[in-house]
Amino acid sequence: MKNKIVTHFYVKDEKKDNNGEAPIYLRITVNGERAEISTNRRVNPVHWDKASEKVTGKSEGARTINAVLITLMGKVEKYFSNLEVKDELFSVHQIMAELNGKSQNQMTLIKAYNFHILKIKELVGIDYAPNTVKRYSSSLNSLKTFMLKKYNKVDVRLNELDNLFIESYYTYLKADKGLQQNSAAKDIKNLQRVINKAISYTWISRNPFKDFSCNYIDPPRQYLSEEEIDALYNKEFIIKRLVKVRDLFIFQIYTGLSYIDMSELTEDNIGIGIDGKRWIVINRKKTGIRSSIPILPRTQEVLEKYKNDPLCISEHKILPFYCNQRMNGYLKEIADICEIKKPLTTHIARHTFATTITLSHGVPIETVSKMLGHSDLKTTQIYSKVVDRKIADDMKSLFDEKIAQ
Length: 405
What we know:
The protein is mainly alpha-helical. The protein has helices at about 60-85, 90-100, 110-120, 130-150, 165-175, 180-200, 225-235, 240-255, 260-265, 295-305, 310-315, 325-335, 345-360, 365-370, 375-400, and strands at about 5-10, 20-30, 35-45, 50, 55, 270, 280-285, 290-295. Helix 3 (about 110-120) runs antiparallel to helix 4 (about 130-150) and helix 13 (about 345-360) packs across helix 15. The protein is elongated. The chain starts with a strand and ends in a 5-residue tail after the last helix.
């Protein structure tokens, strides 16, 4: 259905004040139905141009009033467009309600964001990890800082959002905060998820960011070679904390477990597999997907080493732990001692399991995907590309020596 709108700015001469100034009104007519609203601006009728519907002259006062009128007209056009999307006849009073802040949809971006975080908190430990709440809260703080700096606002209504808003936010994340592509993309993706939820709750009728795209850049996957693994495994450390961290890292390398999943292992996660040998069986914290991993000899060595550890006994865990940040810090020390140039982190151990331990030794990618607990085989295929790179590097010498020719 096609709705028709007519707008008209005019001065109410009969409401002049003692200074001779009269209020400026905006009359809106939709489908023949008329209503008016004050612009909260006044002008001497002598300086009002009826034809162009604006204040004449180039004074600061004239420019300010005209800017207000342009902004108000922009809001009217936006609200009209939002209602027009529904493809049904509507009343002028619906636009007036929007202008007066009394429409049915008064949900704001920050309120919607906080509501989304609240819903996640309710499902922490069920569908979400605690870090998910932290990630969204951090993104929300960035968004608040951006809005205050860019628009001098602490919040904005959902139906006022547009493509320019998210483009400006993306620029802020990269230019002002100095975030790399993937870090900026995470904040953008979080915002887009909030908007998608708002649409599902009918807080907003359309996606204001539908024409904006921001993709992750697949980073190079670091992993350790067999020689580097052996260097770690065979190294004698004097400092006990480094011994413990090295052992935990070796455990990760031979299980592919993430830090969070490894840190929560208990005896209940150890069972007998279909082959009659010991397996680790968990539901991954991140995806909730079941992951079954046969316990390899070096994995078993670490379990045996710490089965009587006082901390493990008191915490009812099978491994002693430092927090992830401290562990990564200690891994840097270990890398220096072992003369490993790659940046050792708890995540590189997972990459090493996928590449050096499994795929490089002929374990099918479908099997590796199951052990890693991936929800999509495409995620695991990232590692197969790494293995292809390794094959190419290994075979390079053949081409250089012309053996294969």
